[in-house]
Amino acid sequence: xxxxxxxxxxxxxxxxxxxxxxxxxxxxxxxxxxxxxxxxxxxxxxxxxxxxxxxxxxxxxxxxxxxxxxxxxxxxxxxxxxxxxxxxxxxxxxxxxxxxxxxxxxxxxxxxxxxxxxxxxxxxxxxxxxxxxxxxxxxxxxxxxxxxxxxxxxxxxxxxxxxxxxxxxxxxxxxxxxxxxxxxxxxxxxxxxxxxxxxxxxxxxxxxxxxxxxxxxxxxxxxxxxxxxxxxxxxxxxxxxxxxxxxxxxxxxxxxxxxxxxxxxxxxxxxxxxxxxxxxxxxxxxxxxxxxxxxxxxxxxxxxxxxxxxxxx
Length: 313
Fold this sequence. Notes:
Elements: E1 19-20, E2 23-24, E3 72-75, E4 82-83, H1 94-102, H2 109-130, H3 136-148, H4 154-169, E5 173-174, H5 178-186, E6 190-195, H6 202-210, E7 218-221, H7 222-225, H8 232-242, E8 249-253, H9 256-265, E9 269-273, E10 286-287, H10 293-297
Parallel strand pairs: 3-6, 3-8, 6-7, 8-9, 9-10
Antiparallel strand pairs: 1-2, 4-5
């Protein structure tokens, strides 16, 4: 039997009676001669039979369980729903450099990149202390001062922020099949994005590029809240916005403190997106990609799609 294990808790905190696909049973009893009732206290999903197809009733062995009383998925965005260049350097600074030159900078593109990177790392170090989020405009102002030796006006700050965001977004890579996966997840869960970001427009813009705008019920960002994950304020804001009981939320993301440990400390369950096993994270709480999340949560019964097409639009 698939069973999750966290320190002090070993199941999703679901209060409903156990339901089995081949009959009903009280917790701890068998369902139609199958294995004991599901440890996650949820609907039983038949195991796949390799000869009869995914989700076939001919599946052998104990079946995974469905987290059917969990009603909300809180999803990190960058590194979870899209891939991106974390270095802030590999995508180049062509637009930023052109903007800086238009306002009087005379150095090379590398000098422009160095000034913006130095400003970013300084602001990021400050945010690491209290988790206060900074804006693209704050970053732009500091970079301007470093490059031009003067305070920029509002127009210059806005232009610098927009050009640097355009450069950075070239490092964002959409994941094929993600929109279809979100559509499947949305059949059983309310989807809320909870993301650290310095720009209010970047998440909606990338969702539109993905074709997933209408699949997301809520977007909560660190920029709007004022604090980044793992600060309590952003988790509270997400729960309030989604009108969600934390006991019915599964948080999914790729960062240990922001997306796994932090949500659990606030009463939510969590699934870590990670390419390899990690100490402290049961394999029943890890996926290599969000494309694998429907299978981990096992919310469909039976599956009507072969394994080879999961997550493919």
